[in-house]
Amino acid sequence: PIQVLTLKLVREHFGLGVRAYGLAFTAIGAGMVIGSVLVAQLNLKRRRGLISYLIWILNSVLVIVFALSPWFAVSIAAAFVRGICIGFGVTIWETMLMQLVPQQMLSRVVSLDWFGSLGLTPFGLLLTGAVSGLAAPGTLIALGATISICIISAGLLSKQIRTID
Question: What is the pTM of this model?
Answer without folding.
Answer: 0.91
